[in-house]
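Can't attach files on this board, so I'm pasting raw text. These are the components:
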Amino acid sequence: MWLNASCLLEFQIPVPSPFLLKLRPRSGRNQWIAREEYILSPSAPVNEFTDMFGNLCQRLVAPAGNFSVRTSVYVETADSSDTAPNAPFIEVQQLPDDTLPFLYPSRYCESDRFTEMAASLVRGYSSGYDQCTAIVEYVRNTIEYTPGAGQQIISATELNQLSAGVCRDMAHLGIACCRALSIPSRMVVGYLEGLVPMDLHAWFEVYVGNRWYTLDPTQADMNGGRIAIAYGRDAADVAIFSQFGNPVELLNMKVTVEQMSGPNY
Amino acid sequence: MWLNASCLLEFQIPVPSPFLLKLRPRSGRNQWIAREEYILSPSAPVNEFTDMFGNLCQRLVAPAGNFSVRTSVYVETADSSDTAPNAPFIEVQQLPDDTLPFLYPSRYCESDRFTEMAASLVRGYSSGYDQCTAIVEYVRNTIEYTPGAGQQIISATELNQLSAGVCRDMAHLGIACCRALSIPSRMVVGYLEGLVPMDLHAWFEVYVGNRWYTLDPTQADMNGGRIAIAYGRDAADVAIFSQFGNPVELLNMKVTVEQMSGPNY
Amino acid sequence: MWLNASCLLEFQIPVPSPFLLKLRPRSGRNQWIAREEYILSPSAPVNEFTDMFGNLCQRLVAPAGNFSVRTSVYVETADSSDTAPNAPFIEVQQLPDDTLPFLYPSRYCESDRFTEMAASLVRGYSSGYDQCTAIVEYVRNTIEYTPGAGQQIISATELNQLSAGVCRDMAHLGIACCRALSIPSRMVVGYLEGLVPMDLHAWFEVYVGNRWYTLDPTQADMNGGRIAIAYGRDAADVAIFSQFGNPVELLNMKVTVEQMSGPNY
Amino acid sequence: MWLNASCLLEFQIPVPSPFLLKLRPRSGRNQWIAREEYILSPSAPVNEFTDMFGNLCQRLVAPAGNFSVRTSVYVETADSSDTAPNAPFIEVQQLPDDTLPFLYPSRYCESDRFTEMAASLVRGYSSGYDQCTAIVEYVRNTIEYTPGAGQQIISATELNQLSAGVCRDMAHLGIACCRALSIPSRMVVGYLEGLVPMDLHAWFEVYVGNRWYTLDPTQADMNGGRIAIAYGRDAADVAIFSQFGNPVELLNMKVTVEQMSGPNY
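---
Top answer:
Structure tokens for the assembled complex are below.
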């Protein structure tokens, strides 16, 4: 499936302000970036680097005044995400080195506090993928998905005491429980075709059966093309923009995702 | 200063259990590892790799029964840690890329919740090192250092509501406040000469004045040689051992640090 | 300066053949990729990864038949390359770690065989940048630049016995001599605005005065915008395509570089 | 098998001279460093870092006068190196990313010039390991192993025109031919138990059958414990010491390898 996706951010900047952006999706085994656009207006010197998780990050000082960031990508991706009932748990000693950071508790996924809860949620399920989907079912059934409701980022333990959250929060709770079972779990921020209302989206991936699988507590099925923008341990790692110093105003944010035909040759 | 330091861990392992150890200090700009020993008893196949923070990590499956890990290092290090009154704050856009992960909130250092508190603690101090020492003073004066008191790891926000904690907890609170000021701050686990009672120790480092400086809320001054074993965002990254699966019993842990003369040639 | 550059490769593939491509320029301190296109026709699954030098590499199996790769970039870059008369030599012990691989001899830059020649070329010049430009002058004056003449890649020692070579060969000779003076030197493949005849181009960079500077033995001055596509030790590292297995036919290769106005907002 | 190995280097240094050393073997899947010693005399500030191939490298400025480097390791390693008749060739598109640098020609392994020769050497052998051993047989039978004969490093094409070489040269020729067949091949410098006369040794590894295998053109069989000190593309990457600036005198070099019983508990 070919998708065209875009994200527009418009800021009002009182004084020149350092930003760290993560808005350049990378081609990987699951997606091919065939066209990409990244327009800063006004333009500003940028230092791009790769972070610990392989994300391309853009560092810049936004000039005072109106400042906009407009990115778009044209991507080939799968029509739906793979599922893998019965995909087995991978013993810690067999995990690839680069999955290990995703076993530990992180800012918004306090997996060290979910040992008992996770164990009770997966009782009777076979180890691995089926445990993860049991956890996702719990999150989906327990937490009311309320797009747009989340301003302050809350953690898995905080969400677990509430009844409602955004996609990011629900991913955090799913991640915390999966990690509590020693299943590597990572946060993904990206685009999901057909999301209602359209916005940037967050979901998570688990490493079972020797590969990463996509899980999404906000969606009843795994249909819809996805474009991953950034990976990390939780929302602290994958913010599409971080701004330092005096607060700036985000005037406008607009996200689009359209299905396209393939490139014309 | 030449130090000889050792750490002995003795476990009773009911069933073969995966471990991840971080007990091989690296030579760096501040310490030279002249001799090192790392004995597993009984011996077991180990996969050693480098994590995202540059720590050498050892992965193995400990066999059932008594299992001990005995490490020692003979190291040249400074007699005391550098201090740098007035060392300036480095603007985010000028920071080296590899300091950036240490700006974000992490599991036990919820810096996103300390913006106001940190600002109030450093009012009147010049930006940079002096802000950090003001924060360390606050932690030292507010939290009673109670070595050995900490079983469950608590976070900076949790510690801030209590009156007592271990070195690790106090470092977390210091880190959370420094990061809230956009100063990169990282956890260090290691040896400190002369620590009473002797144990592994935790402190933190801040990046100001274009280098990392050592801070230690548990110590009245910066005297004493230090050997860094592992670096990370907080205790979740620098555990000297993580064990997965059924719990095992840590029967004994013994740490020694002695000052030595230099090597005989 | 805004440049629009493109590269088209058309192959006739007898049997499915593995390719490794390096055709996705990265944003860095000197260039900002504002728009990029990378079209495979027919499309094929690609695995993109980052190599040791930070280049984004694309691995794929080209299907039998006609296969084309069409890439374009729209980039903000400098109008001309910085020069730095008198920029000093950096002592080896002060060099950043990531410049060190560019001190050693490599396949086509046998710097270990150029110690005497390099010393004689730079006699009387102050250490650093001025030595490098003396070497570039020698290459420019000694070797006749014959675009399109090079099929087999020849090395610096081989070129030094000939009177003519392509840009790649001349860069190799320059690199070999600079490395022989312990100056880190790296190969760059990319686009050069105004190159006659238009083609992909190769030049090199040297690390003096605490940064990388561009040198180009084929050009009388450093005017013209440049877009770096890949960095490496020599041509062996920066081939824009490597093909494995039975030979395939490159039917057509077309490169364009146009100066543009900036993006319309 | 437990080995105790040591390497002593004694220099006479006329003026302070930068050195880059690679003398700290790492634990890996095949060897466990249980004890290690690294003594500089006189001691000097060292900056240790990890190079592109994962080797720990030590950078320092040796003071004028007598300067010695004394390293020893106590290591658990296999009694002999695995062999794998029939282990299959891995198609380029299936190779792990980190094996790819070892497919390309390098300074002393001009694999691009060995396509025909390699093809003719392996005619009739099944693709993969058996081709590699055919190449090793050719090198062993064609080149007279003359320990101690090699001062200047010569390349595979140069050796191929001679009748005699040292272990390093013979490894280069083996590597060049294997790479010419698209088999990743890397140089190893290390210790070999029982080597006559005892010295540091060089051999190579090939990636077939989904792992690295050891090959050694100088040895009739694969018996003897090995300790890898450094990995790279060829001798240019794995020099145990590189010295920059005015030449220094290596007064003495002594290598020992002894078989030991395991550690006493």
